[in-house]
């Protein structure tokens, strides 16, 4: 296109009050960018008005000039355009004291000018649009919020603080050079000790959980948040303080550090980086983990305190499976003395127990009329009834429906019969699903695949249609499951069913070879002594305390041994074994990288899984501390990957 054939564009920007925040350059820049993006357009003029209202007047000389130039362009060529950020830059009056938008639209129509606005492109499409005040108001509020955000950014670039007041600070008002009131952050003496304590502990290497516990033990509470009174601290809130760069005096806008803030800092920027380096920023991880489905999602409740049970997926084990656990919400989230003391429970065990007792939890005597002679005595249509019973036994939904349809057709519709029918239909479906659950539980034991994950989700939906909640209470000797059923047809309220499973019986049934991990097994004295002797027979020497630090499949933890017999040496003595002496650990043994990888491989081979950093927290003769490995290889996972690759 030659320059003559291009559409001529005149740009106009305006601001009502003195343009202190530099908004006119922004408007002009936006319009320029839009015009330059289109090869058929050409910018021929730029005008702006400052401190001329469009609400109480008709803007200033800038708009008059812009309109004159675009009129001339339109008279000369086929089309000319007036560009502006928003229609209210041109007019926002009511037609009496100031120009109405529709007046601009009429002017444009008469003179052959096209008005283009970036933020409300529909306004000048036809006259009706220009008239609709509601539309204009809506667009106006949107534009205002957009320019407020841009104003915030400019303020942050100047080192001012925008947004809510962080805990440990307060707003103080003062006048700036142009006699305008400015809000500034200052240290809040009342909250200062709390924030200082958080950072002091963090810089000493304490984890957020430990800091939270310490805060709550010291009686510190959170600040007032949006009218809500102070409560004990939670880990997420402590992490929020630790990750907030404003405490290091960094002015940020939408997560981006723009300038050095003009307020007193609690920590230095280097200290902030150190803390982030340890606890990590909460940016999404590069490789989001697949969410493991749980059978009792949105159903499970803690039997002790009534809080919901959270599903928590832990670290990956060597066989590729993930550690799945249920944990009481109060235990997981609260770090105050009043938190629920129930520890996380293995999801596999609880789900297995639930499926094993599903028949009892679902179908009680009131809901089993199909097997109950008294309830089915009124049924005279024995042929059809037998067909229903047969269909129920096959567990096929379509067969059951067909049989029920025949039965219904052959008898008079009677209220009680209809109810019985509904109940028996429900029972039949539930019986079929019980079988489905049992099959699912069996395949779960052999490992998860994508199809069993899908099945878990489907079964969870099914269970939620039957149960309101499933409370799980774990004690030393048994697990108590209390299932609350959804109200059934013809029943006014929900009903309950309870089942208690002995942990010893369960462990025996689940692990017949006695080698599987038995989480709640109560070790008797004779059993412990037998385990000690068995270990000594196998290894040719007495076990050391450190070697039994964690429980094995067939032996308890060293702590259990010590708690039962008073001391490790006493237990060995009673088992007829030679006492062991604490081994001297050479603290500064120089671990080469090869030695570390060898130690990792030996440990993985003999234990059949990856060690946790917690297990390797302290150095022993056999391996260095996890922190050493982390420093040497960059991260724990990198070291594990290297050890497994070689
Ligand atoms: Zn609880």
Give a written overview of the molecule.
With 646 residues, the chain is of the alpha/beta class. The protein is 44% helix and 15% strand. The chain is built from 24 helices and 15 strands. The protein has helices spanning 23-37, 61-76, 101-111, 127-131, 133-157, 192-203, 208-217, 235-243, 269-279, 329-333, 347-356, 358-362, 373-376, 382-394, 397-410, 415-445, 450-466, 503-510, 525-539, 558-565, 568-574, 593-607, 626-633, 636-645, and strands at 7-15, 41-50, 80-84, 113-117, 169-175, 181-187, 250-253, 256-260, 300-302, 309-316, 322-328, 345-346, 467-474, 478-485, 496-502. The strands form five sheets. It has a four-stranded parallel beta sheet, sandwiched between helices. Strand 10 (309-316) and strand 11 form a beta hairpin. The chain is extended and about 110 Å long. The two termini are 65 Å apart. Mean pLDDT is 79; it is low at 365-379 and 512-517. The structure holds zinc ion (ZN).
Task: Give the gist of this structure.
The chain is α/β, with parallel strands linked by helices and 646 residues long. The chain contains 24 helices and 15 strands.
SSE diagram, text form:
Blueprint: E1 7-15, H1 23-37, E2 41-50, H2 61-76, E3 80-84, H3 101-111, E4 113-117, H4 127-131, H5 133-157, E5 169-175, E6 181-187, H6 192-203, H7 208-217, H8 235-243, E7 250-253, E8 256-260, H9 269-279, E9 300-302, E10 309-316, E11 322-328, H10 329-333, E12 345-346, H11 347-356, H12 358-362, H13 373-376, H14 382-394, H15 397-410, H16 415-445, H17 450-466, E13 467-474, E14 478-485, E15 496-502, H18 503-510, H19 525-539, H20 558-565, H21 568-574, H22 593-607, H23 626-633, H24 636-645
Parallel strand pairs: 1-2, 1-3, 3-4, 9-13
Antiparallel strand pairs: 5-6, 7-8, 10-11, 11-12, 13-14, 14-15
Helix pairs in contact: 6-7, 7-8, 11-16, 14-15, 15-16, 16-17, 22-24, 23-24
Bound molecules: zinc ion.
């Amino acid at each position: 296109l030659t320059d003559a054939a291009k559409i001529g564009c005149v740009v106009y920007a305006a601001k009502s009050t003195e343009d202190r925040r530099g908004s006119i350059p922004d408007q002009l820049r936006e319009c320029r960018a839009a015009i330059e993006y289109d090869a058929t357009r050409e910018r021929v003029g730029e005008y702006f008005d400052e401190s001329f209202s469009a609400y109480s007047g008709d803007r200033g000389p800038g708009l008059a000039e812009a309109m004159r130039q675009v009129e001339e362009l339109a008279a000369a060529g086929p089309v000319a355009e007036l560009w502006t950020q928003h229609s209210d830059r041109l007019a926002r009056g009511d037609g009496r004291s100031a120009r109405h938008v529709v007046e601009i639209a009429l002017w444009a129509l008469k003179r052959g000018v096209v008005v283009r606005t970036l933020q409300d492109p529909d306004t000048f499409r036809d006259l009706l649009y220009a008239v609709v005040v509601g539309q204009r108001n809506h667009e106006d509020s949107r534009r205002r919020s957009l320019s407020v955000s841009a104003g915030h950014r400019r303020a942050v670039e100047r080192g001012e603080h925008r947004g809510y007041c962080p805990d440990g600070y307060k707003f103080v008002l003062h006048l700036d050079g142009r006699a305008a009131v400015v809000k500034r952050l200052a240290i809040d003496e009342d909250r200062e000790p709390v924030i200082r304590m958080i950072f002091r502990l963090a810089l000493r290497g304490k984890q957020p959980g430990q800091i939270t516990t310490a805060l709550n033990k010291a009686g510190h509470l959170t600040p007032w948040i949006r009218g809500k009174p102070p409560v004990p601290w939670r880990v997420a809130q402590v992490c929020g303080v630790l990750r907030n760069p404003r405490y290091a005096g960094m002015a940020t806008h939408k997560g981006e550090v723009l300038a050095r803030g003009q307020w007193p800092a609690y920590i230095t920027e280097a200290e902030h980086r150190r803390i982030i380096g340890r606890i990590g920023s909460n940016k999404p991880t590069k490789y989001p983990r697949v969410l493991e489905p749980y059978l009792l999602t949105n159903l499970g409740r803690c039997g002790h305190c009534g809080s919901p049970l959270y599903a928590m997926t832990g670290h990956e084990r060597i066989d590729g499976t993930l550690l799945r656990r249920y944990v009481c919400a109060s235990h997981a989230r609260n770090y105050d003395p009043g938190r629920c003391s129930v520890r996380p429970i293995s999801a596999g065990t609880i789900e297995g127990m639930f499926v094993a007792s599903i028949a009892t939890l679902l179908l009680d005597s009131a809901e089993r009329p199909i097997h109950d002679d008294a309830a089915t005595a009124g049924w005279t249509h024995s042929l059809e009834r037998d067909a229903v019973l047969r269909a129920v036994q096959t567990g096929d939904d379509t067969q059951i429906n067909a049989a029920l349809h025949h039965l219904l057709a052959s008898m008079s519709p009677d209220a009680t019969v209809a109810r019985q029918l509904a109940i028996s239909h429900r029972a039949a479906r539930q019986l079929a699903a019980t079988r489905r659950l049992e099959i699912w539980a069996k395949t779960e034991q052999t490992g998860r695949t994508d199809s069993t994950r899908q099945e878990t989700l489907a079964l969870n939906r099914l269970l939620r249609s039957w149960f309101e909640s499933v409370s799980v209470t774990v004690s030393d000797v048994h697990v108590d499951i209390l299932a609350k059923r959804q109200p059934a047809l013809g029943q006014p309220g929900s009903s309950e069913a309870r089942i208690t499973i002995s942990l010893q019986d369960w462990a025996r049934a689940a692990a017949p070879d006695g080698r599987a991990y038995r989480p709640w097994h109560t070790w008797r004295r004779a059993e412990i002594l037998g385990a000690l002797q068995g270990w000594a027979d196998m290894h040719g020497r007495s076990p050391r305390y450190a070697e039994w630090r964690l429980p094995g499949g067939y032996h308890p933890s060293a702590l259990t041994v010590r708690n039962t017999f008073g001391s490790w040496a006493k237990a060995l003595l009673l088992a007829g074994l030679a006492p062991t002496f604490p081994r001297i650990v050479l603290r500064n043994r120089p671990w080469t990288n090869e030695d570390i990888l060898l130690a990792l491989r030996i440990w993985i081979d003999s234990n059949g899984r990856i060690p946790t950093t917690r297990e390797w927290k302290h150095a022993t003769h056999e391996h260095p501390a996890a922190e050493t490995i982390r420093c040497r290889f960059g991260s724990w996972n990198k070291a594990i990957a290297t050890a497994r690759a070689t």
